Structures are given as structure tokens and as C-alpha cells.
Amino acid sequence: MNEIGVLYGFKRSRWIGHKTDELITLLNSALNRHDHTAVKVGLMDVKIKIKNNKLIVRDALTNYDLKNLRALYVANWRVSPEIAMGIVTYLTRHRVPVINPEIGRFLPLTKLGEFILLSDSGIPLPDSVFMRHKHIQGALRRGKMPFQYPFIAKSTNGSMGSSNWLIKNESDLYSAMAEDPESLFVLQEFIPNTFDYRVLIFGGKPKLVIKRSRKSDDTHLNNTSKGGDGLLVPLEMIDTSLLELAEKAAKLVGRSELAGVDIVINSLTGKPYILEVNKSPQIETGSNVQAKLDAFSDYIMESING
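Request: output the structure for the sequence above.
Response:
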């Protein structure tokens, strides 16, 4: 198949006052001379998956794998630069030509962008699916949810444990979408755990580690901002492989100078997973504020003095 994808915000929408279908028709009339056809790709109508740490991008309705395109032209990406970045990154990794690949250099702002950049790199990630509510609802109607219950649903824009739910049944998922109707969700396998680590990275190196533990079984969140305990753990007591993992994750998402890397440990297998690389590591809030401020001020002085 010699299909050239043309990326717009939605499969059914208008752009700059013209129907996108008409623009596709015009482009087809030119491409047919080269035995190629143009097909519309909806930016907000894709499903971005992380499976076994590998990035996969497909049409959310047809399950068409975008790596089967002959090439891609990014006509409009403004409705969601991070999704566009994910599509371009995926195609580039599979050597599918992108006519204007500049959006692939967009820096991540949310969990979506972070996971895109962390995928295909050997970083252990929970299996995850990113898509908008319309397509989650469609998957529910078709009985084709990506995970068995319980699993996690959270907004890609959530922070400090907000907009984060443990989904135990279909009703829970509908309630979560109703509570946060405008967000893009990530559905994620639930990693059984009793704690997680927040690793603070300053200047490319781990400087502090806080072990976060929830106080009751009424929540699945270990965040200190949600009432969890935060125990400062000396670096020498942390397995060096975990510190190296945090350091690598921060570097991959372009946050090696300042980041808070969250690592959860599967309580059944002992395997670590990266949950997030926070651009703001909560220096002034949460637990152990003075220790964080001291470490951060030391880093500031090192930066000033070279």
C-alpha cells in the first residue's frame, strides 16, 4: 500500500475554513500521478500504547498501525503537540519518512510525552494506553479494554496524585471520565506495591531519595501530598541500579538538570518501573522540605561557581 498519511486534528473536522476531505481530494489528484494516495490521520483519533516498553501508535477505531504508512505529512498538530510528537517519533523509529518532522523535537510537558521518550530505550514502564474519552468509551462498548481490572486511570496533566484512580470496574471508569471530562487519559496496568521512591535529580545526578508509603488501604497512592509518609533514605542504602535507572530516565526526557523521578517496586516480583519524571520535584512542599531545600541550594551554588 502506498498511502501517504496527512495528519490533522480530527478525522472529522474543519481546518482553516475548508473541509479537510476536500484538501485530501486535491492532494490525491497530485499523488495519483506517482501511484500513491493520501489518507487522513486524526491526531486525536489515535491510540498510543506502551507494551513491553515498546511504543505502538494505531488508529483508535480501526486499529490500523501507523507504521504501515508510506510516509506522513503533518498538516496540523496544534490541538495536541505531544500526540503529534509521539506519532512522528514512532514513525521515525520505524524508518517511515515524515515530510516535516520538526514536531518530533517537542519537549514533553505531561506523562504522555515522558512515556513516548522513555519507550524503546530499555527503561521498564508499566503497560499503558493513551487515548481520549470517546475512544475509551468505544472500547468499553466493544468489550475490548486493554487491561483486566483493577487498573489505573489518570489524567496526563495530573500532578501530586490528582486525577488518579484505581479502576475496579466499568462504573469506576465512567465516573473517572465524568470527573475529569476534558483530559486525555492514560490507562495503565496496576503494579502491586506497598511504597515507591521519589529520586531527586540535580545536575544529572541523584541527590536525595524519599521512600513514600501510604498509611491505609483506602488509597492506592503513596504521594505525600495525599497523606503518605515520606522517609528520607541515604543514597548508599539504595541499590545503585535504581539510581542509574532514575538518572537515565531523567536524561532521556531532557530533564537531567532538575527532575523528580518516581519509581515503583512490584511487591510480587521485585521489578522496578518508572512511573513519572516530574519536571517539578516538589522541593518546597511535601515531606523533608528542609533536606530538599538544602540539597537544592547546594546545587544552585555549584551551578554558580562552576
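The helical segments are 20-31, 81-93, 111-118, 133-142, 170-179, 240-252, 289-305.
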